[in-house]
Design a protein that fits this description.
Length: 223
């Protein structure tokens, strides 16, 4: 069995969760503290959109952004000699794009469970938003954030559609576990496909166990 899809999948998911966890947490907190309810609803819809779009559609948008004939893709290629499409970086971008909504929604839910009186008291005492976040909101929401991070990691690990559109299916370079399963089935290698499926199912079961563990801790703290 070729181990490169497993290695590439973990490398991609680890790099993706690094960006997703911190950006999702920060953006969720900023939206959570937004006073304008209309703007808050709009931002919630915008940041959740990739969760409901078909992955291939979102992959098309990414391709339309990073393609070498598009402004951003052309800029990266001309000035930095970086070609995103069909590269390992493309697998990370696809994983970040599709896993961000899960992290964002989990973070919003975690912040909304915090007793608003604590945040109001901190404001009364003259705490800055930065201090409220680091001293109160983040510590109280940490288990919910970790649960969201684990789910986002799993989503990045299992990404298929957007990765296929932006990164392709290049053996040893952009072929992740889901793509390896697809390739094995397409080649008629049922045994290899079953091995890959078994691995990803076991990984997902472990991830769901960790998510449940963090969720229970979060409920106990909030309770």
């Amino acid at each position: 069995m070729d181990l490169s899809p497993i290695i590439i999948s973990f490398q991609t998911a680890i790099m993706a969760i690094f960006f997703t966890f911190f950006s999702g947490t920060l953006i969720a907190y900023l939206v959570f503290r937004q006073k304008n309810q209309g703007l808050k609803m709009l931002l919630n819809s915008l940041f959740t959109l990739p969760l409901v779009l078909p992955p291939t559609v979102f992959g098309f948008f990414l391709l339309d952004i990073f393609g070498v004939q598009q402004p951003i893709g052309k800029f990266l290629l001309d000035f930095f000699s970086v070609k995103v499409v069909f590269s390992w970086a493309a697998t990370v971008i696809a994983a970040v794009a599709v896993s961000f909504p899960l992290m964002y929604r989990s973070a919003i839910a975690a912040f909304e469970q915090i007793d608003p009186d604590l945040l109001a008291a901190a404001q009364t005492l003259g705490f800055s938003e930065r201090k409220i976040f680091f001293k109160i909101a983040f510590p109280l929401a940490i288990n919910g954030l970790l649960a969201g991070g684990v789910l986002a990691f799993a989503r990045g690990l299992g990404e298929f559609g957007a990765t296929t559109m932006l990164a392709g299916n290049i053996a040893g370079k952009t072929r992740t576990l889901p793509l390896a399963i697809y390739s094995a089935v397409a080649a008629g290698d049922w045994s290899l496909a079953q091995q890959y499926v078994t691995i990803i199912v076991l990984i997902c079961l472990l991830i769901l166990f960790l998510t449940e563990l963090f969720s229970r801790k979060s409920r106990r703290i909030q309770g």
